[in-house]
Design goal:
Number of domains: 1
CATH topology: Jelly Rolls
Distance between the termini: 19 Å
Number of strands: 12
CATH architecture: Sandwich
Strand order of the largest sheet: 1-2-3-4-11-6-9
Order of helices and strands: EEEEEEEEEEEE
Helix content: under 10%
Oligomer: single chain
Shape: globular
CATH class: Mainly Beta
Number of helices: 0
Structural class: mainly beta
Largest sheet: 7 strands, antiparallel
CATH superfamily: Jelly Rolls
Length: 123
């Protein structure tokens, strides 16, 4: 369930970790800080109305883009075009933290088509 922190920022705890919205005031982008707990992974998913850019702050993320694996460590980033199947996996023993910049025309959580999901949420 989405809630607000003491500064009024939207955040949500998920089965894989959590996110907090850092900026959602502009009509063409949204910025989140995402934490993926050790051994967890996000849904393998696609978006129809937004692209994403992930900048890894700490930890090493295994990012899957259209079935191809990429290792992304601190200080590195990866681009996810609209419609690209993607997920972030944390195969390490420490948290993976990344900043996600969404760019597009719509940023609702319902612009997620889950292709695979460890928590029973796939469509």
């Amino acid at each position: 369930m989405t809630t607000r922190d003491e500064l009024g920022r939207e955040y949500d705890v998920r089965p894989w970790g959590m996110y907090i919205v850092l900026d959602d005031a502009a009509p063409d982008h949204k910025v989140k800080r995402i934490v993926v707990e050790p051994g967890k992974r996000l849904s393998y998913q696609q978006h129809a109305k937004r692209s994403e850019h992930w900048f890894v702050v700490s930890g090493t993320a295994t990012v899957i883009l259209n079935g191809t694996e990429h290792q992304v460590g601190p200080g590195y980033s990866i681009d996810i075009p609209v419609g690209t199947a993607h997920r972030c996996e944390n195969r390490t023993g420490s948290q993976v933290v990344f900043v996600e910049v969404q760019h597009g025309t719509y940023f609702g959580e319902d612009d997620i088509v889950r292709l695979e999901d460890d928590f029973g949420r796939a469509q």
